[in-house]
Amino acid sequence: xxxxxxxxxxxxxxxxxxxxxxxxxxxxxxxxxxxxxxxxxxxxxxxxxxxxxxxxxxxxxxxxxxxxxxxxxxxxxxxxxxxxxxxxxxxxxxxxxxxxxxxxxxxxxxxxxxxxxxxxxxxxxxxxxxxxxxxxxxxxxxxxxxxxxxxxxxxxxxxxxxxxxxxxxxxxxxxxxxxxxxxxxxxxxxxxxxxxxxxxxxxxxxxxxxxxxxxxxxxxxxxxxxxxxxxxxxxxxxxxxxxxxxxxxxxxxxxxxxxxxxxxxxxxxxxxxxxxxxxxxxxxxxxxxxxxxxxxxxxxxxxxxxxxxxxxxxxxxxxxxxxxxxxxxxxxxxxxxxxxxxxxxxxxxxxxxxxxxxxxxxxxxxxxxxxxxxxxxxxxxxxxxxxxxxxxxxxxxxxxxxxxxxxxxxxxxxxxxxxxxxxxxxxxxxxxxxxxxxxxxxxxxxxxxxxxxxxxxxxxxxxxxxxxxxxxxxxxxxxxxxxxxxxxxxxxxxxxxxxxxxxxxxxxxxxxxxxxxxxxxxxxxxxxxxxxxxxxxxxxxxxxxxxxxxxxxxxxxxxxxxxxxxxxxxxxxxxxxxxxxxxxxxxxxxxxxxxxxxxxxxxxxxxxxxxxxxxxxxxxxxxxxxxxxxxxxxxxxxxxx
Length: 641
Ligand code: WT7
Prior knowledge:
Elements: E1 3-4, H1 14-29, H2 31-38, E2 52-55, E3 62-65, E4 70-71, H3 73-85, E5 89-94, E6 101-105, H4 106-122, E7 130-134, H5 139-151, E8 154-157, H6 164-174, E9 178-182, E10 185-187, E11 190-192, H7 194-202, E12 210-214, E13 228-230, H8 231-237, E14 247-248, E15 252-258, E16 266-271, H9 272-287, E17 294-297, H10 304-316, E18 320-324, H11 335-343, E19 347-350, H12 352-359, H13 364-367, E20 376-380, H14 386-396, E21 403-406, E22 425-426, E23 440-443, E24 449-450, E25 454-460, E26 470-471, H15 475-483, E27 490-498, E28 504-509, E29 513-516, E30 519-522, H16 523-531, E31 536-546, E32 550-559, H17 567-580, E33 589-592, H18 606-614, H19 630-637
Parallel strand pairs: 5-18, 7-8, 7-9, 8-15, 9-12, 12-13, 17-18, 17-19, 19-20, 20-21, 32-33
Antiparallel strand pairs: 1-22, 2-3, 4-14, 5-6, 10-11, 15-16, 16-26, 23-24, 23-25, 25-27, 27-28, 29-30, 31-32
Helix pairs in contact: 1-2, 3-4, 3-5, 3-10, 4-5, 4-8, 6-7, 9-10, 12-14
The chain binds 5'-O-[(S)-butoxy(hydroxy)phosphoryl]adenosine.
């Protein structure tokens, strides 16, 4: 299963790999010493003396890194580059329309961030306050994030695809009193009514006192006097300098909501020092970023990938980072490749779902471009199937660019398992080995550590600097969710296989989380949206295989006794979920079920529902313990898709 990658310029292909092995050994033997050195990849205003102060044991639980050090993230991303690369392009913005491009230098970005920091202050935002961002992929999104970091405010970016209700829930949960948005977003030639969504959300957020609105399209939007302000007008009045706030390493940097296996989305909290070290170090090491190169991560800043590898990692490293406000198939299926040529992209980082979608459209779209600038390709968000990997490597990368398949999570802050960018042997579908300082283990259901070539549940045995510190407002939920399944270890929620070479192959979630196009969706969230509909009495949601999305959403819905199933109602429920959560939560398949398979104690047997959704109805296992085994026959008979 290995593919030789030809690197003509590399005389000593083995050396980087050896160095990586040595770093792994050093980090495992002496984490404190290793991070004492590598924590210096960012600039500290007050250097740390303490390094690692962590324990996953319940009695003594704590996660603190570089705790007596002080720094500012925006100073790291901006000020420290001004003397050496003030006129270098920091952000290349590429709009929805090809060639709608804007280049912002480090000096220009610094000034914009300072101005916006002053705008926030004028709105009464102070250190520790939460600021919600609901924006398209525009430069102002990075400006707003960095401006928050500059004054010590905590940003919570909400993906522009989420509904007003989802946005409102996130605003209320973190208690933010200010929202930054745009009049409208543009995606694939369509307009997204961001400001109107904010207005709808704020009907249920009485504490929000101000809304700053960026003019993106110039579309006509309602402005509420005394609450809503135009971004450009506020910026014009703001002073162009602002001293960065001195932040403690463990002060919060941002909250990012993500779906879990139960309940509503959790506010994952990342702090200042450890997160920045992790985003910066992994950016440099995994992508082997070289001065002057153009780095393009296609993720939206509404997800963690956009935080760590569009904004923080690249800018802290003085890189040129691309912000893309479009989609892979607009105006046509050649968009990525045409844009790579036009912008001279050297490193390209995207998700398997996009690769699969483009692969289906044929090689011609790719071959119209030269892609001569490309040097390295990355993949993130879900397992990449070997067929998509090969196409990415052979067609998109012309067989000459290594692929780094990077495994990580919102919770981990940055990449955890990834191949060396110099690897001469690659295994399509394997993220291969942990980065130095990451200690993965595979455990069985009882928590026994499994050795050698095996398969099990993926845990991380010890802390790393980029680790999330808590769930906003609910520390107990943090400890419960991640550290009680296998006491003393961080449980990822993923399953994985390890081969005889020690390489990891992530097999996917083992909990009730579905990975739809590389985005996490909790089955419980979709279920609660469905049962909130007046005609629904019960719902169960599971994942199903999907050619392009990786996983699709399969919903079983039991209607109220007086309601008859119909195609119209199916459409109505799909629209309902879209309104309640957003387009990414809409079920791909929706089956009306007269009853759900339950144990006598009333627990839904998801194992059976998953099998039916997968179309694997020949091996449903023992159904005799069900309260009513006959419901299974009805489910199998009426399976959809
Ligand atoms: C889940 C985390 C990490 C940024 C994007 C998603 C899956 C992520 C890979 C990969 C196999 C992957 C896992 C993980 N995942 N990267 N390279 N190979 N699976 O962040 O929304 O927090 O989702 O994405 O299942 O647990 P996220």
